[in-house]
Amino acid sequence: MASFDQFPALVCKGCSWPIPLPAAVHPDTSEGQGLWPMGGSRRNFLCPACRHVYEYSAQDIQFMPAQTDPRRANTPYNVVYIRLRCNVQGCAYLFRIRTLMAFDKDPHKEAPVILASSHAHAIVCGNGHILNGPIVPYGFAFDVQVDEEWEVGKGVAIGSSTLTATIRSDAIAV
Ligand SMILES: [Zn+2]
Ligand SMILES: [Zn+2]
């Protein structure tokens, strides 16, 4: 069945690498094919492959062939978010930048490494300030947490398709 050979992902707007998406805990059934969490369409995601950060929305979800799944076999993955304070003086807004991380990685150790080589593309603060370019000059992460809006992404049945993490051997180390 073709549907079992696909997984939902955001396709990186920079390098076209698929960022696999686990199921949303409280999906918004009105958009994103029921795969996007409630509480706002737009979310910033950092691509684990190229570390460029773009804003994505429910409409950006695509079904990708299983052989392109970059996850390590039999390894659960979490969506984690890193919060960064807006660097505009007087602005207390916290950006949230999400990424996909294997459960056996420590987000608190990984976040500074990831951010050190990350690059933002028009990420908008809640007060309208726009973050562009390398993120590190904007300061250190405020915190990093597993995003409980998403389930752990391993072998989760979603409608007619199945998230499968058992395919590819040349997985990236994130
Ligand atoms: Zn990328
Ligand atoms: Zn701001």
Give a written overview of the molecule.
It is built from one helix and twelve strands; from the N terminus they run βββββββαβββββ. With 174 residues, it is mostly beta strands. It has one domain (6-162). The strands form three sheets. It has a seven-stranded mixed beta sheet with strand order 9-8-4-3-7-6-10, with helices on one face. It is globular, with a radius of gyration of 16 Å. 36% of the residues are buried. Mean pLDDT is 82; it is low at 155-174. One zinc ion binds next to loops.
Kindly, what is the distance between the CA atoms of the first and last residues, rounded to a whole number of angstroms? 29 Å
Low-confidence stretches: 155-174
CA-based gyration radius = 16 Å
The hetero molecules present are: zinc ion
Q: Note the main sheet.
A: 7 strands, mixed
Shape: globular
Strand order, largest beta sheet: 9-8-4-3-7-6-10
Layout of strands and helices, then pairs:
Blueprint: E1 6-11, E2 18-20, E3 43-46, E4 52-56, E5 61-65, E6 77-85, E7 94-102, H1 107-116, E8 119-124, E9 130-134, E10 141-146, E11 157-158, E12 161-162
Parallel strand pairs: 3-7, 4-8
Antiparallel strand pairs: 1-2, 1-5, 3-4, 6-7, 6-10, 8-9, 11-12
This protein binds zinc ion (2 copies).
Residues 12, 14-15, 17, 47, 49-50, 52 line the site of one zinc ion (ZN).
